[in-house]
# Entry
Amino acid sequence: MSAPDETVIDDARRDAVRAYLEAHASEFVAQLSEWLRIPSIWTDPARHDDVQRSAQWLSDALRSTGFPTVEVWNAGSDGTGAPAVFAEWPAGVSGAPTVLVYGHHDVQPVDPEELWSFAPFDPMVVPGPDGDRLLGRGASDDKGQVFYHLLGLQANLAVSGRSSPPVNLKLLIEGAEESGSPGFPELLLERKDRLACDVIVVSDTGMYGGGTTTACVGMRGLTDCQIDLHGPDVDLHSGSFGGAVPNPLTVLAHLLAGLHDDEGRITLKGFYDSIRPLTDRERALIARLPFDESAWLATAASRAASGEVGYSTLERVWVRPTCEIHGVWGGYTGPGHKTIVPTDAHAKVSFRLVADQEPLDVQAAFRDYIKAKVPDGITADVHFFGEGVRPYLVPLDDPALQAVSRSLARAFDDEVLYTREGGSGPEADIARILHAPLMFLGVGLPTDRIHAPDEHAVVPLLLKGAEAVAYLWDELAASQST
Amino acid sequence: MSAPDETVIDDARRDAVRAYLEAHASEFVAQLSEWLRIPSIWTDPARHDDVQRSAQWLSDALRSTGFPTVEVWNAGSDGTGAPAVFAEWPAGVSGAPTVLVYGHHDVQPVDPEELWSFAPFDPMVVPGPDGDRLLGRGASDDKGQVFYHLLGLQANLAVSGRSSPPVNLKLLIEGAEESGSPGFPELLLERKDRLACDVIVVSDTGMYGGGTTTACVGMRGLTDCQIDLHGPDVDLHSGSFGGAVPNPLTVLAHLLAGLHDDEGRITLKGFYDSIRPLTDRERALIARLPFDESAWLATAASRAASGEVGYSTLERVWVRPTCEIHGVWGGYTGPGHKTIVPTDAHAKVSFRLVADQEPLDVQAAFRDYIKAKVPDGITADVHFFGEGVRPYLVPLDDPALQAVSRSLARAFDDEVLYTREGGSGPEADIARILHAPLMFLGVGLPTDRIHAPDEHAVVPLLLKGAEAVAYLWDELAASQST
# Structure
């Protein structure tokens, strides 16, 4: 919950920003629509030229906005990776903080295209229940959210009368985020001097929806693996051998069932030791979010909620680590019956992590668990898919978060509550490589249908995003200088 | 362990039987070889004529032996099922017990035929480590074991000088045992008046091997099922929903892991209540069988033995009920990873049962277990494959078993120990339909390669089978009349 009275944006400034945005709204939508016509799908090699065109379009727009430095950086050591757009505009005053804005200009594929009710790359505006909607792939994820940064900066400059932003502003707009960002961490490492900053602002997330003004403050981490158990070297007749040799499927069931205790807690040794405690304030703020469990269950297509004892549904998916089984297989799985003791059993298992759990520590604890529980006669192989993804969490008392909250509160005339994402992204690694705290500023909605047919953005929310940006650089400059 | 001094076969009779068998051994092998040339594979519709020819061949052989009644009964209500051969020869004295011998004249398929080192239907005799071997499909399972009944009876009659057997002798030799006996229970029910008997003798099993003389006294029962669990109606993103809705794979792991306690005992309510206690004598006799665990493990291709605490390996597979998982599947099972909470989870599970557990009681207990353990939000469907197979057990003090043991002890000049089969067969139902105790008299060896390429029988053992038969009718007549 922000304290609106700390804002450096007075009412006159606010009114002027709003007038500016209102005056430029049509042009904003028209220009964004032009960008949305470019099908910048990096996953499809046939679209790589379009991704380059998209980078070029953005570069031109940034130059028109006034950025003195605009460069296209191709990811990958041979320079044939996706084009990221880098832009930089130093502050007009010395001692100003440096901000790096992260977003992406590539978009998800559109198949199956027949499920769209409009042409995904022929954007148009239609009325919606929450104001005009801009229809088109990328409208919400993420071109719309990148483009309001340009409008927000223009409003800031026009209204303040300054010729440079109040912070040293850098933008890095990636070109292959929807393909898992190949080569991007390496690009960050290589260019980390040019990307040096005091705070990172990611505009690639959303709000809670239902008219509640929120800022995201965390993502869960992830590490996942496959377990392969081997028992007898041949399938055995269960009449002749059943009950007298270890059955790998029975062992697998014990291993998987033993991962949770009766209260839904994960049993790996030391698993909870490094978790940053949930503060009473964090908990109280989550509890203030309007939550309709039956609507949530309908979205999940599940008949019940369940999980760790002592936590609400939102807490279970946001602030608590979890362990899920994604697949199991082994033995006879065809029609009818075949009474064997099978040779093998397999499972895929993941752990979602919260700050400050380390994926590699969890991997080690899981290996120890398997080693201790697998009986004689069964061999176990555990293969983790990579080193995992670290969780990321912004403390509520972080000054940069408070600046984000004040900007949102001013833009939305509302108090700001806090959400988290249950999923996992590269934020922790970006923050770690660039040695800077990372904030989320996003105005997408859960109903925007990102990654799905009929993606759209709510135009008034994009404009609120621009408004928050118009305030944020002043709020950040003020918070850094105090 | 039999008491050899109770036998009614004196040494003179024994010597005469052995002389008879020695004199007729070549003819026995020659005739059996003729029968083995008929590829009576009921599973292959193209071989149905051969199965009819096999029935005809046996009928002729039974008539030549002297059976006054020989009939072919086709199974199935329309008479197009496999031909069983029925033969009957009343005792020469009134008040004699009635014995029904069961065996089968159909054989297993021979594919892959390229793995045979000889032609499966071109039988021949070759020297082996345990005496001459008769090579050919059906030599051990089960034509060889049926045919020694004819030779044994001829020896009994020739040596005793009687013109009829000392018991009312009936034979029922089935034609589709290797196909799961379709229509056979119905045939038993329809003809149960003609099949009425005081004791049933099944010659379709083997001995322990390694030179130990044994009689089988039991088979385990079986009931098996498929469990289908359904959770969310769509695969869910484990970041957004993981940890807050029940995961059917986690529930499945708990259900399957909970079937055994820490001592390897099955946890279903009342599961052990109806088990006939293992007597000290039964246990001591099993312990006397030579058992080489490392050799057993090599056969199992398993690296360890394990199972219910307090029982030996042989006890675990013979005298204790077990529960095995035969297959599990659900969720994502392809390469790499896909972090979902899946919609469904499946498993195939069986229970092997021992006397006097009832398959339908176990099915009910399992359904109760599933119902009690499945949490809200998961639906469970349990489908049992049929009504299951009842276990069968012969008490060691059964007079008919003692007669079988005395016959074997006399034939092998050895004490008789007792084995069981861990697998499951129709014996309990045959005994139940015909209201008579059922005994096993078999001389197959574990090394006979039944159901596999290179099936063979050990000729001296087939002759020992004939010798035991030559004594058994007198032993049974004597035991029934006392």
Chain B touches chain A through 80 residues (CB under 8 Å). The CA atoms of residues 271 and 361 of chain B lie 8 Å apart.
